[in-house]
Write a structure and sequence with these properties.
Jelly Rolls; about 400 residues; 26 strands; 9-stranded antiparallel beta sheet; mainly beta; SH3 type barrels; 5-stranded antiparallel beta sheet; disordered N terminus; 3 domains; about 5% helix
């Protein structure tokens, strides 16, 4: 190769680098991959990490996994005994998410030196939960190539991410467990041989594909954005795949009723028939780590706490009861807020149920005709009716047929 050709090639490379920097890239690993995967990621509303005897849970900084920023990372010290146990390192909780692939940025993804400075996982397991059922055969195990090359664009690599491709697209996902079963040691010169870093983790509902030099999200769903790095052209439509929505509207103002959210209990559930200590008791159920369905929330201004209506199974029968949100692994705004729907009177003697229909437990005493109270919810042909129980000297909420009520109070 002649000196003239070498100089021409060098000049061309300089021009390319200058153009990339002028467009605001700064580093050439951004070139050709401007789509931020995190904007299409399902967002967990809660996560749990494996308890540590050393008490260094706070060093995990799991939130750094979900910010899409290369220079921030989750970190924790690797221990063989933890990688060999039956407890996942992190459990992420979702509200009925759709997930096909996990995309992971190993270690710090800023420079080759920083990538190798810290430990990073190379062998991980993934467990997917749909509803309260674990996918058979999980965990699924993946080996992550130990190489820093953020310019690599392929079906398995994108903008510094590596793809952990699940065997199918899962819908109504409530939980994803991440197991770290092996890692590459960091550089001992930095005294960080066992301090593991992961920069980012995205939970995508579709596969990224490459078509004629253009990166696109699954065209079958018409989703996502693309970037033609041959022509330096961007296309960023409004994304149709968004983080899991949190329902906040009154369910009676929507076409379909809210289906509920599967959540885990933090402790044994002490319950009431309504959202407050001035309601009749409804028993105590289960222990920590049990799945129940959260349906709605109500604020108890007297005690300044949120109560959540949950559905559970007791002795083979369904029940709906209220418990304090502190007993559940969730936040109150993940479910619709209850709104009063007006006063009513019972027009005939009728049995009350623990939920909207014959599939739920039935109370033993009839509610007399003429009992006045308030309607709070409707579902199917039943209404949730609140009244004052004279025998218990407390308020009670039950479900009764809607045709046994006359809404006389507007």
């Amino acid at each position: 190769m002649t000196i003239r050709k070498i100089l021409c090639m060098a000049a061309a490379l300089c021009l390319l680098w200058t153009a990339a920097a002028a467009d605001g890239y700064g580093y050439n690993y951004n070139y050709g991959a401007p789509v931020n995967l995190m904007q299409y990621s399902a967002v967990p509303y809660h996560w749990e990490i494996q308890p540590r005897n050393s008490g260094d849970e706070m060093t995990w900084r799991v939130q750094n996994l979900l910010d899409g920023v290369r220079s921030s990372a989750m970190e924790h010290t690797c221990w063989n005994n933890e990688s060999l146990d039956d407890v996942p390192e992190i459990s992420f909780y979702f509200t009925n998410a759709t997930i096909k692939d996990l995309w992971i940025r190993n270690a710090y993804d800023t420079t080759d030196e920083q990538y190798n400075q810290f430990a990073r996982p190379y062998y991980v397991g993934v467990t997917v939960w749909v509803g309260n059922t674990q996918d058979p055969g999980d965990p699924k195990y993946f080996r992550i190539p130990d190489v820093w090359d953020s310019t690599l664009l392929s079906g398995e690599s994108y903008d510094g991410y590596r793809c952990l491709s699940l065997p199918q697209r899962y819908e109504n996902v409530t939980r994803v467990d991440l197991w770290i079963k092996g890692w590459h040691k960091g550089d001992d010169a930095y005294r960080s041989k066992y301090i593991m870093h992961i920069s980012d983790l995205a939970f995508l509902p579709d596969t990224i594909t490459r078509l004629y030099g253009t990166w696109i999200f699954d065209p079958a769903n018409g989703s996502g954005g693309s970037y033609n790095y041959n022509n330096n052209a961007y296309w960023n439509p409004t994304p149709t795949l968004v983080p899991t929505a949190v329902p906040t509207a009154n369910p009676y103002q929507t076409a379909a009723p809210f289906a509920g959210v599967q959540v885990l209990t933090k402790e044994r559930l002490a319950t009431r028939s309504g959202p407050g200590t001035n309601y009749t008791g409804s028993g105590s159920y289960f222990q920590a780590g049990t799945w129940v369905k959260a349906l709605s929330a109500a604020y108890d201004s007297a005690n300044e706490i949120w109560w959540v209506q949950v559905e559970l199974t007791y002795n083979g029968e369904l029940r709906r009861v209220y418990t304090g949100v502190k007993r559940l692994q969730m936040m109150a705004d993940q479910v619709p807020i209850e709104e009063e729907q007006g006063g009513a009177v019972v027009t005939r003697s009728v049995y009350g149920y623990w939920g909207p229909g014959y599939g739920y437990s039935m109370y033993g005493d009839r509610i007399p005709a003429g009992t006045t109270g308030t309607i709070w919810q409707r579902e199917g042909s039943y209404a949730q009716f609140e009244y004052f129980d004279e025998a218990q000297q407390a308020y009670r909420r039950v479900w009764i047929p809607e045709n046994a009520l006359d809404e006389v109070f507007g």
